[in-house]
Structure formats: C-alpha cells, structure tokens
Amino acid sequence: MINAIEIMNKSPLLADVNITLGYRIMDSCSDVSTALRATADFTQWTGCYTRSNTYGPPVMAVIGAYFSEISIAIARQLTLKMIPQISYSSTAVILSDKNRFPAFMRTIPNDEHQIAAMVSLLSTYGWNWVGVVTTDGNYGQSALDHFVSQASEKGICVAFKSILPQSVTNGDVCSAIMQTARTICKNPKVQVIVSFAKPTHMMYLYQELKNQTLGAGQKMETMRRVWLASDNWSFSSHVKGNITLEDIGHIMGFTFKSGDLSSFNDYLSRLEAAGPDYIRNNKFLQEFYMHLNSSTYSGETELVSKAVNRLREHTHAGTILSVEMAVSAIAQAVVLKALWMKEFKFRKNSYKFDSNGDINLGYDVTMWRSDGGNIYVHNVVAEYHPHSNNFTHTDHSSTQQLQDLKQIISKCSNSCVPGQFKKTAEGQHTCCYECINCTANYYSNNTDMDQCLSCDIDTEWSPDGSSSCIPKALLYFSWQDGFAVVLLTFSALGILLALLVSALFLHQRDTPVVKAAGGPLSQVMLFSLVISDISAMLFVGRPNSFQCKARQALFGISFTLCVSCILVKTLQILLAFQVDPEMQEVLRRLYQPYIIVSICVAVQAATCLCWLLLKSPFNYVIRHPTTLLEDCHEGSYLAFGENEGCIYRTEE
C-alpha cells in the first residue's frame, strides 16, 4: 500500500499538478469491531475539517478491507457519507448490490465468478460428490449458497456442509472443527473438499484431521484429499502447520490475477538496504521485528533482512496488483462518479469498473507443491477466463500436473457403464444411485445416463445390458442357400434337357416318330417347360415388387400351357383307341389342339390378370425379435387359390 502511494505521488499524473496523496493506515486485526471503531474514528472528523486540523485533511477514499465481513460492515458506515471504498480482496457477492453499497468498488471479481470457476473445474474432472467448509459470516454463507446453486445445475452434489464460527476466538470453534474433521473422516468417498474458510480455520482443521487419523490408528495417507481453496487462504502456506503437503493431499487455489512485481521488489530492497533506522519509523515492519526478536539472537541488521524476506514470502502477487490498481484508480479520480464510471490508466492499460463496481480480470489457478520441505503456493498451473468460462494451461508441465488429478475419484456411486442407467432411490442425492442394466431393445451409449434409449424395433434389437442397437439380420431365400443351389441346379438341367430335346425334335420334325409325338405341340410343350424352369429362378434372391408379381403368374401360365398340351395328347390317344363310332365322331369334332391350348391358356391368363389388377402380390417384411424375413405376400389368397385351381382343373 505504502509503495503504491509513493509511486503515484512521484508519477507525472500528480506531480505535475502539485498534488500529493496522504494516507492513514489502520489495522483491523481481522476483527469487525476493531474495523468499525477505526472507521468511526476517521468518519467523525471527515467533513468537519474547519473545526479542527488535528487529524489533517478529511478522508477522500478508503482502500480495504481484506475480508468480506469487514468490508460489508464498514461499507455501511462509509455509504452514509458516500466515501468511496475500494477493496483489493473482498469478494462477497452482496457487495455488488449498488442499492445497498453504492460507494463500494473493488479491483477484483466477485465470488460468483470464483464459484463458477470451481464448479467448472469439478465438472471437468468428474468430481460430483464434494464437501464444503465455510464460515458463518456474510461471506461464508453467501459463498455456500451460490456454490450449492451453481453446483446443482451441473449435477454436482454436496455430501456435507461444515459451517465454522467466523471468529477463531469463539468458544465453539474448537468443537466445530472437531466435528468437521469427524465428518471428513466418515466420508471416505468425498475426495474433494471446497473451502471458503479463513487460513486459521484451515490450520486448526488440518491439525485436527491429523490427530483424529492417528488416534484411529490409521495411516496419514487416509486423510489425503483434493482441497479447492478460495482466495481467502489459497496463498497462506502456514495453514499446513507441522503437517507435510503429502499428508494433506493436493491443494488447488484460486487467486487473483498477478502482475509485474518489480516495483514492489525494488521497494523491499530499499527497505532492506536502509537498515534498522528506517524500520523504527515503520510500524508494520516493527511487528516482524518484534516477532523475530523474541525467537532469535541475531543482530539488528540481520533481523531487518529477515523481516523483509518474510514480507516477500507472505505477500501474494495478486493482492499487490489489486492494491496498486486501487491506488491508481483513486489517484485518477476526482469524485465518486468519475471513479466508478470512467476508465483509468494502470500500467499502460485501461480499466473500468463495471455497473456493479467490480473489475473482473479472471483468476490464476495454483497448485501447491513441495520441494525440499519448502511449500510453493504461487505455482500457477492454469488461468480462468470468466467471460468464456474456460481454463488455459500455462505450460506443458502444468498440463501434466492437472492430468494426474484425473486419477482421483470423488463420487458417491461408481459410474454406470454403457448398457446401464442410473436409478436413484427416493430421498437420496441424485449423485447416489444404483446401476441397472437396460432391458431388451433398450440401450445406453454413455456413462451415467439417466435412462435407456429405445431401439428402432422395426429394424434393430438389443439384448439386456446393451450399449448399442444391433441391426436385425435380413433373411430371404438367398442365392447362397443350399436348397436354392439344388433348386437352381435342377432348373438349369431342366432347361438344358428341354432345349436339347427341342433341338432334336426340330431336326427330326419330318420323321413319323416326331409327327406322332405331336409335332409343333411338342415344341410348345418343351417351350412351356423352359419357361416354368425359368420362373423357378424368380423365387430365389431378395424379393422385389416385380418378382412377387411375375413369379406366380409366369409359372401359372407356363405350366397351364404345358398341361393343356398334355390334355391335347390325351384327347388324341382317346380318339385313337375309341371303338364306338359315335363317340369317335364326337371326339374328332372336339379335337382342336390349338383352340384347346389357347382357351386353357387364356383362362389362366385372365385369372392372373384379374389377380394382378385387383390385389396383386407384393414384397413385405416379417419382423421377428432379432431378424427380418423378407418375402412375397400373395396379395389375395383367394386369387392365388384360383390360379392354382385353374392348373388343377386343366390337369383334370
């Protein structure tokens, strides 16, 4: 804060107009009451500068506080006199309500964006069974409510909610932490815990977890979890106490965007070079000096160096950027409206408070790592972009670190594999379910499906527990079928024999034997046999409309032609052996070979034509549970019977 103010005072923005920013820094001691007394102190004389100049010029703006609970309390006081307040760390959503806090602004995003980032991360890794640890203040309750709301929309269930007293001096805090530790130990399936608590709470919680784990005779590895740390404690390495990071598990923190720290590091270097004389005039460094002096016998110069190094360790880059941005905004502002609505320059970039008084730059995602006993909390592995709600990895190493986390499972129930669906019992969390196999003709093609999908029963089927539908096998009288091969072989032989006999008869057509066999009628009969054998081929292969209509009609007409020729032969024989003159004369008059053949064929053709015109055969599919049988439907079985009857009557 001091460094940022000194930089702005030396900048051309203020130096050219001979304006100097003064400051009065007051420590809230992380306590609301202390912060309220301090706020009342400087607001009492703000606006009554003419009565007394003991305190100097009136306060024009306030930067802070760190914790949301404190910012909410003092914002109510500052709103009465419309004194601008800019926080560099308070993220409670309620502070974005301009009807209640019109004078409040901040250089960071509110918790809705942080919670959205957390929920997105949980969803990405498939962690849908999580615990939440928070405090009972405005910040903790608001964060809990928003997290539960956003998590439920993504199908993430909260296994337990542990609400700790906000003040660590509260007498109930110890029992609350003990109960929280017991809850965590009793929920081994909850491998991911989201925490909005304060650093001190987390330090006590980790210690209690260790005590209960060892007290139960369990190994330390059983307390390992993935901890999603809010900006409240994501860079507070001291929370681990005397417990190793390996025992705690993985800590992923969400921190504010960091920037260039060169100016702050230069400032610390100047402090270190100034030595003990300068530190006596800096109350904040004196606190470090006093703590170090009570635990070491080093010289004053060495104590100053240690105090400065301790500052380097415990000051987060994101906080520094937010503080510097707040100071820069105030330096460029004249009145509240200008501060809120107009853009301001900071490090060659333009920034602007939105309608809620926030500046949303996104978050850095850190993963704590241990190296040689030292904890590195500023290990940035990804960046969260709130406008697109996605993450980008910083480098290949960070990608690998995040990929390793996918091995961790935090679910109430194991995932239902494809072929199953989730069945949740009444009153249970939606994340706790039983996996049931899909029934026949139903399937699920993804994990954790809420219901099975139906197959198209006309063309598909599936057995129990199937992950996909199986096309029904299409069956018909195939050319490769054994019976079809035999049928076609005999048909081919019949055609060949008929053609050979026809050729022989044609060659010997003038001989008495051929003439006695019927002459031209023999050729007609042989032709009809060839057509009948050819029609047999229409019964083989995948049926189509033409085949279904042609095969019965062609066979019926050709076979009728053959039988009518045989009828003529029969009449010829009867005529030859008839001894009764009168009967012989009748038979001789009736014996008109070509007329008889034509009439028989015409009757059969007329029958087939009526059949085809009125209700012709068609191809159709008979659907069985696992197969499709494609066949020809005769259309009208009455017409089919009439067709066959004509052949029978001809034979008679």
Word description of this protein:
- The chain has an 8-stranded mixed beta sheet with strand order 5-4-6-7-8-11-14-15, with helices on both faces.
- The protein is built from 23 helices and 24 strands.
- It folds into 5 domains: 150 residues, Rossmann fold, CATH 3.40.50.2300; 192 residues, Response regulator (Rossmann fold); 56 residues; 57 residues, Tumor Necrosis Factor Receptor, subunit A, domain 2 (Ribbon), CATH 2.10.50; 170 residues, no CATH class.
- By secondary structure, it is of the alpha/beta class.
- It is a multi-pass membrane protein.
- Belongs to the G-protein coupled receptor 3 family.
- Keywords: Cell membrane, Disulfide bond, G-protein coupled receptor, Glycoprotein, Membrane, Olfaction, Receptor, Sensory transduction, Signal, Transducer, Transmembrane, Transmembrane helix.
